[in-house]
């Protein structure tokens, strides 16, 4: 019932600063949408437009199919968790969490009960009479979540809620967040520039870049079928190998190797094409049905469970990076890598967008 | 003592006191000595009646004070002056600070202008206001007459009630800017996020002012009250220049009365006793305010 929709949203601060250009999205009940993108791409601005803290230049915001574009933030029944948590420093944890309910004139008994419930879920018992300055970062974060949860809003908005936590705590809270919001049947819009958060938490990811929506898809599809070269390079760690290759007849030339082009591709006017392959998909040695590339290792980075091996491709300026488990390779060694054809991504040299390969349109 | 010296903390304390000693001695010389000297003098009668020779009277001057209607009157006038001036200054100062805290074109200039009245010399301001309120040539009368609010010119500084109101107005004009700048510093330390979070929680601007702004700037408000109370209670120059305490003693604040006692009637012993009592009242009020301040600071900083 309470789904969130934005249509043709635009925010223009000045002719040069247009952080949101023409954004249309819908988030259903129980869906978890992540806005993902590099710093300054307009994620926070989008969230603030949805929250009503900022008026859009054009476009509409609908909550539960009601147009709320011109309603004030307090009238939209949304809850927002700020990056800074924005806890009221002079109020106790209890007062912080209860603030929104008190302002909406909720009966005292119900306030008590809802705060107690949130406190149990978030494990805040015993902290209720403390002031925020006497809490750890993780505890503050939970208080901020509590303040949102007790409101039982129509939409949850979260702006990089984990970025102030250390790496270990972040992982733990991320798991808690996932459980917490799975139990709430409410649309969630979550902003982050951390792709791991986006991939683990969301049911849908919107990748933004310079105010434009690059791709809106499930995390799996964003990973397996990046819509363009930007998404391909932005999602996945270590980064996808993206190689600009010359074409010859129906093949792209990778050094001495000849990679068959996807059948649908017209011969590129410039005679060039971008090939993408993730380091984790490259295989060691000559594999059947794969194009093999020969080269010389020049760098090995230990990532713990595997090594990231960089190699110069023979007879070219190109380099390839591959993830290889327990390798004994050293710099200077010869290496043969195979490119499994179903793991290749092709991008147009001009438009940078994905060139579909025939069977993939059916897959997924 | 030897025990204290043995612990590291004890030695640190001793070092601390040693380092403080020069500053303490300077303070004693500059503050403690004159205060004690005034107290000592207050135990003597030293006036024209004794040919300006000190004659010991014990607490005689203080007993005299109990029956001195003019003293109580001046204390009452000072209190009225202080309470009204400080209250209005706080309200106006807060309003101006809220405006200056918004971002608008020319805000820097507005902030600079706002501090000007405070930066000008008081005697100059008092003289200007004396002319503004002048019965015959004053601008204030002129404005009111032209607007049709007054039919006849009024001698503002010549009527007892009006004279006090006029001095209060001049004081408000001068020191509101000080209060505003002080409160502005407090407002600027409040993060915009808090207001946004509160707005999303459903608060109206007035509720945000009551529940966020006021509690968060309470330390600055109390500092302003403390400063302004101490200054206003001892106000001298503005009143002395504008009215000299008149008409009919209606603006005779404590400082003006003490000045008259000492400099006009040359009653040094009694004047010293007046100073001592005024001083004690001030110290008591400042102590209370400082106590409240530390409590408020603990609250906002969340202890
Ligand atoms: N009030 C404003 N006036 C003018 N420009 C603004 C304003 N707010 C944001 N911008 C600009 O809009 C762009 C997008 O800002 P936004 O805060 O949405 O980025 P973001 O994606 O959240 O980045 P980050 O990951 O660093 O938080 C930035 O270039 C920023 O400078
Ligand atoms: Mg942001």
Automatic annotation (TrEMBL), chain A:
User: What cellular component terms from Gene Ontology apply here?
Assistant: ATP-binding cassette (ABC) transporter complex, substrate-binding subunit-containing
Alphabetic keyword roster: ATP-binding, Cell membrane, Membrane, Nucleotide-binding, Translocase, Transport
What CDD domains is this protein classified in?
ABC_MalK_N (cd03301)
User: Keyword Cell membrane: yes or no?
Assistant: yes
User: Which residue ranges does the record assign to the ABC transporter domain?
Assistant: 4-235
**GO BP, one annotated term:** carbohydrate transport
UniProt cross-references to SUPFAM superfamilies, sorted A to Z? MOP-like, P-loop containing nucleoside triphosphate hydrolases
Q: Which GO terms describe its molecular function?
A: ABC-type transporter activity; ATP binding; ATP hydrolysis activity
Question: InterPro entries recorded for this chain?
Answer: AAA+_ATPase (IPR003593), ABC_transporter-like_ATP-bd (IPR003439), ABC_transporter-like_CS (IPR017871), ABC_transpr_MalK-like (IPR015855), ABC_transpr_MalK/UgpC-like (IPR047641), Mo/tungstate-bd_C_term_dom (IPR008995), NA-bd_OB-fold (IPR012340), OB_MalK-like (IPR040582)
Output this protein's name: ATP-binding cassette domain-containing protein
Q: Which organism is it from?
A: Petrachloros mirabilis ULC683
From TrEMBL, chain B:
Ranges that cross the membrane: 75-100, 112-132, 268-293
Locations listed in the record: Cell membrane
**Coiled-coil stretches noted in the UniProt entry, renumbered to this chain:** none
| Keyword Repeat belongs to the record | no
Any one Gene Ontology BP term: transmembrane transport
State if tRNA processing is listed as a keyword: no
Name of the protein this chain belongs to: ABC transporter permease subunit
Q: In which organism is this protein found?
A: Petrachloros mirabilis ULC683
């Amino acid at each position: 019932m309470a789904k969130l929709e934005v249509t043709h949203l635009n925010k223009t601060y000045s002719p040069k600063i247009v952080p949101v250009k023409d954004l249309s999205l819908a988030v259903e009940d129980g869906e978890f949408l992540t806005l993902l993108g590099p710093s300054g791409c307009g994620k926070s601005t989008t969230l603030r437009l949805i929250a009503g803290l900022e008026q859009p230049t054009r476009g509409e915001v609908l909550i539960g199919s009601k147009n709320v574009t011109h309603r004030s933030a307090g009238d939209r029944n949304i809850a927002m968790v700020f990056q800074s948590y924005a806890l009221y420093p002079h109020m106790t944890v209890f007062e912080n969490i209860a603030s929104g309910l008190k302002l909406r004139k909720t009966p005292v008994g119900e306030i008590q009960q809802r705060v107690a419930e949130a406190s149990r879920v978030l494990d805040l018992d015993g902290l209720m009479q403390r002031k925020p300055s006497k809490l750890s970062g993780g505890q503050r974060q939970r208080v901020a979540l509590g303040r949102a949860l007790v409101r039982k809003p129509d939409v949850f908005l979260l702006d990089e809620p984990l970025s102030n936590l250390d790496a270990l705590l972040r992982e733990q809270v991320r798991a808690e967040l996932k459980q917490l919001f799975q139990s709430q049947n409410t649309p969630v819009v979550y902003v982050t520039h951390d792709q791991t958060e986006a991939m683990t938490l969301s049911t849908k990811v919107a990748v933004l870049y310079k105010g434009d929506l690059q791709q809106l898809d499930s995390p799996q599809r964003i990973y397996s079928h990046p819509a363009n070269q930007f998404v391909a390079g932005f999602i996945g760690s270590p980064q996808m190998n993206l190689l600009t290759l010359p074409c010859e007849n129906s093949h792209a030339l990778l050094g001495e190797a000849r990679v068959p082009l996807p059948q649908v591709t017209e011969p590129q006017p410039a005679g060039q094409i971008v090939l993408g392959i993730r380091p984790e998909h490259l295989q060691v040695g000559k594999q059947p049905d794969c194009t093999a590339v020969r080269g010389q290792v020049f760098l090995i980075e230990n990532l713990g469970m595997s090594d990231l091996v960089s190699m110069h491709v023979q007879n070219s300026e190109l380099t390839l990076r591959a993830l290889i488990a327990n390798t004994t390779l050293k710099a200077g060694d010869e290496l043969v890598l195979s490119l499994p054809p179903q793991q290749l991504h092709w991008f147009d040299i001009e438009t940078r967008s994905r060139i579909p390969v025939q069977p993939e349109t059916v897959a997924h | 003592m030897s025990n204290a010296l043995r612990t590291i903390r004890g030695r640190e304390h001793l070092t601390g006191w040693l380092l403080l000693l020069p500053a303490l001695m300077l303070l004693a010389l500059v503050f403690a000595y004159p205060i004690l000297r005034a107290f000592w003098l207050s135990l003597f009668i030293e006036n024209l009646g004794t040919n300006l020779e000190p004659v010991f009277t014990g607490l005689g001057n203080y007993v005299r004070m109990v029956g001195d209607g003019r003293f109580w009157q001046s204390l009452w006038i000072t209190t009225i002056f202080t309470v009204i001036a400080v209250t209005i200054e706080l309200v106006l100062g807060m309003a101006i600070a809220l405006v200056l805290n918004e971002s608008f074109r020319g805000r820097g200039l507005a902030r600079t202008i706002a501090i000007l009245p405070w930066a000008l010399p008081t005697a100059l301001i008092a003289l200007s206001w004396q002319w503004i309120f002048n019965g015959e040539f004053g601008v204030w009368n002129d404005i009111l007459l032209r607007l049709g609010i007054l039919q006849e010119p009024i001698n503002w500084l010549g009527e007892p009630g009006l004279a006090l109101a006029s001095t209060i107005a001049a004081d408000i004009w001068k020191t509101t800017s000080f209060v505003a700048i002080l409160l502005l510093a407090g407002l600027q330390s409040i993060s915009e996020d808090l207001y946004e979070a509160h707005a999303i929680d459903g608060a109206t601007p007035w509720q945000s002012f009551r529940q966020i702004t006021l509690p968060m700037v309470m330390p600055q408000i109390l500092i302003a009250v403390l400063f302004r109370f101490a200054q206003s209670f001892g106000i001298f120059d503005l009143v002395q220049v504008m009215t000299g305490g008149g008409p009919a003693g209606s603006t005779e604040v404590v400082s003006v009365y003490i000045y008259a006692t000492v400099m006009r009637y040359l009653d040094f012993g009694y004047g010293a006793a007046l100073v001592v009592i005024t001083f004690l009242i001030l110290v008591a009020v400042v102590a209370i305010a400082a106590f409240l301040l530390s409590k408020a600071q603990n609250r906002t900083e969340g202890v």
